[in-house]
Amino acid sequence: MLQYENVLPLSDHFKLYDLLIPKTNLLRQLNELVDFSFVYDELRSKYSEDTGRSAISPIRMFKYLLLKTIYEVSDVDVVERSRYDLSFKYFLGMLPEDDVIESSSLTKFRKLRLKDMNLLDMLVGKTIEIALSRGIKFSKTIIVDATHTMSRSNPQQPLEILRKRSSELRKSIYAFDEGMKKSFPQKYDGQNLAEEISYTRNLLEIAKGCQYAELPAVSEKLNLLQETCDDIMDHCTTSDDKDARSGHKSSTKKFFGYKSHIAMSDNRMVTGVVVTSGEKADGNYLQDVIRKTEDAGIDVDTVVADAAYSGKNNIERCDAEGVQLVAKLNPVVYAADEDKDDGFVYNKDAGTMQCPAGHLAISSRTDKARGGMNARLVFFFSHLICRECPLRDGCLKKGARRKSRSIRILDDTHENYMKFEKSAFFAEKYRLRYMIEAKNAELKNVYGYSRALSYGLESMEMQGAMCVFASNLKRILTLLGVKTTK
After folding, report:
1. Nearest to 329, CA basis, from 250, 420, 408, 405
2. Tell me, what's the pLDDT at 1?
3. Is a pLDDT exceeding 80 seen at residue 154?
4. The predicted structure's pLDDT at residue 2
């Protein structure tokens, strides 16, 4: 049963808040800025209206999560601090003498109440709504970039994790019948991933057909091994964080985790976010963040971005929709974008082509134009990596030792955009791009967005929602000229 407490009840100790919490306190200012009843309205359907014990106010639970983000503390620590910190109690709508919740309640709230909610878009939209209601102006210019967040866990080598989970499956079956050892294929002890996958498939086929396959102790291990094998076949990596993937910060530096594709207005408020796994190309999500910005109530006629967004598709789509894209042209990004959609993308950060498995090309050459044909830039991938890659069957041509990928170098079709790049308008707008670099740094360094707090894409989106919500609220106070102290 859900109860909503709109105001603090009377208490002999209530005056302590006015005596000890200054008017400039950030949490006091946030309480005055935001009507948090929207949380109650959004979560009403997640609670029973007339059965069970009265639930802790969803507004209070949501505020606990916001405090975790603002102060970068754990569930246990945020609850403990709310026991003695009067500013926390005031913000949470508690009386000074009130007892606190169990920290485990926050986990249940995230998993049960916030599950399947589009929390990210909802909270971004709410901050835009608050800003507009307070008279804050937005131009029609947004700045777009992607920032990475490290996974909570490190990736494991596919060979190692397959062997580990194959061993767990065999042991679960041996617990019921040691004689099954004779039925299973001989273990593979080499370092060839394809051979290990072949062994794993044979093991799975026999295990699924045995009489113990339906027993929970066996079926759990069997399903886990099957899922791991499928994941490696699709993505060539695995870890405890099944949604995280490897991406590139440069040609020599990789990261394992997620990307957040962010749109920000030139008043430094985030207006749209798309969270993906780490291997996704930045430029592919430009239209998504524009749409999310417009859904939040902000008109867009100019987008400022880096060279990763200068693909032909982005330029043409923005032009068709009356949006001016201000992004320094990279001829390779432009040309690669117009070719067939085969999973190969030009990785701007690494400065080379990236294959569907996430591997980078190791060399390239330029084939000069001849016979009326455009010049082409050819990228070559490592034959050692291609030989071991589980995606090689659908990628390599028959008899080929390694993959190569060529793109046309266009020298005239983007002539108009090259002229635009030299204009005064382009130069003026492009100066705004540094702002989003500062915003990315703020999200990471102030609100803990540099590393995932939990596992999975849904949890990453929830973390992003709270970080952006906190950042935007603080920005609103700054734009309103309100000085705050923590």
Report:
1. 420
2. 42
3. no
4. 46
For 96, half-sphere exposure in the C-beta direction (CA atoms, 13 angstrom radius) is 13
Structure token pair of residue 388: 């071991």
Which residue reads 């957040």 in tokens? Answer: 260
Which of 122-126, 204-208, 362-366 is least confident?
362-366
Kindly list the domain boundaries of the chain, sorted by start residue.
15-117, 122-150+251-327+423-486, 158-235, 330-413
Phi-psi region of 111 (alpha: psi -120 to 50; beta: other; left: phi over 0): alpha
Residue 448: count of CB within 10 angstroms of its CB: 21
**Residues 322, 324, 325, CA angle at the centre, nearest 5°?**
130
Q: What pLDDT score was predicted for residue 112? A: 83
Report the alpha-carbon distance of residue 54 to residue 45 in Å, rounded. 15
d(CA 98, CA 478): 32
Provide CATH code, domain 122-150+251-327+423-486: 3.30.420.10
Phi, psi (rounded to 5 degrees) for 389: -70, 130
The 10s digit of each residue's pLDDT in 355-412 is 888 888 888 887 776 665 667 788 899 888 887 787 777 787 777 777 888 777 665 5
Report which of 151, 212, 221, 142 is spatially closest to residue 435, judged by C-alpha positions: 142
Q: Are strands 141-150 and 302-305 parallel, antiparallel or unpaired?
A: parallel
